[in-house]
Design goal:
The protein is an alpha+beta fold. Among the domains are: about 160 residues, no CATH class; about 45 residues, no CATH class. The chain contains eleven helices and ten strands. The protein has a six-stranded mixed sheet, with helices on both faces. The longest helix is centred in the first third of the chain and has 36 residues. It is elongated. The termini are far apart. The relative contact order is 0.16.
Length: about 290
């Protein structure tokens, strides 16, 4: 009987928390809608301030409670996610991005990571692997000799990506079964003095519900998005609203000793792979390649 009573209390507490959370989201949705209907910048600012209070940057005491791997992820993200470093890692130009005209930066609230035995290869190791794989996959003859000559003379740098040792790392990047995810990711971001909002599922759903209350066409002026434009910048791709700020770090792959990390970066229109090295607890970019356009 005592066990049944305890279980009932737990269920009641869970349902109470769930109802409270739903009511809270509903009240914030109503505040946003009221701000729009009244054309009130003050109410809109109140909405964003409430969002910021509800999802604050992780405190020092909360950081101290993280395990060693999570601490390294936070350290790496903070080191990488600032304009000067991103310009190296991703050809990011803060002056050309929407961040220049916005008051808030909407950041990712989750991050995927995993470990591999090795993620960094010296130039000599990479060259050896490229040549070996080319000789294994390309028919012997003048064509192969021509490709090898060009590669050895620095004319085919992309062959490192095609035939080099990083293919296994990319396989790990695609294999979500080997990954872990931090779902409540709230790192400190120092980015042109912008205030930060973390795009949790709750706020993503709330904003999309607000934006989708009107019909859109190719020639629509998007009045609801224009209203939010006073504080955040949005992009629309076909029928999808892109709310978060780019670039986004989609995955981090550490080596087994946490000495190196391969970071995959998704921009608004392009992608990049960046290698970082851990020098006495400080992460620095040692190489970066542009990998394509979306």
């Amino acid at each position: 009987m005592k066990q049944i009573f305890s279980a009932a209390i737990l269920i009641f507490c869970f349902m109470s928390c769930k109802v409270s959370h739903t009511q809270k989201a509903g009240s914030e949705g109503k505040l946003l809608e009221k701000a729009y209907q009244e054309h009130s910048s003050a109410k809109l600012e109140s909405f964003f301030k409430r969002w910021q209070r509800n999802e604050p940057t992780l405190s020092s005491s909360e950081l101290d409670k993280l395990d060693d791997t999570e601490k390294k992820i936070y350290q790496l993200f903070t080191a990488l996610y600032e304009p000067n470093t991103l310009s190296i890692a991703h050809n990011f130009d803060a002056q050309k991005s929407n961040i220049k005209a916005s008051q808030y930066l909407i950041s990712q609230s989750s991050i995927r990571y995993c470990q591999a035995d090795k993620v960094y290869y010296s130039p000599e190791e990479a060259d050896s692997c490229v040549i070996k794989n080319m000789e294994m996959t390309i028919k012997p003859g003048s064509y192969l000799e021509s490709l090898l000559w060009n590669y050895r003379h620095g004319k085919m740098p992309k062959f490192v990506r095609l035939y080099g040792p990083y293919g296994n790392i990319r396989s790990a990047q695609m294999d979500t079964s080997q990954s872990k995810v931090i779902t409540d990711f709230r790192p400190e971001i120092r980015f042109n003095n912008k205030q930060v909002l973390y795009l949790t599922k709750k706020y993503d759903t709330l904003l999309r519900a607000f934006l989708n209350k009107e019909d859109y066409s190719w020639f629509s002026k998007h009045p609801r998005a224009q209203f939010l434009d006073k504080f955040i910048k949005l992009e629309r791709w076909n029928d999808y609203w892109d709310i978060k700020f780019y670039p986004v770090i989609t995955k981090i792959i550490f080596d087994k000793n946490f000495q190196y990390a391969m970071v995959y970066i998704q921009g608004a229109k392009e992608t990049a792979e960046t290698m970082l090295k851990n020098d006495s607890g400080k992460w620095r970019v040692i190489s970066a390649i542009h990998t394509g356009y979306d």
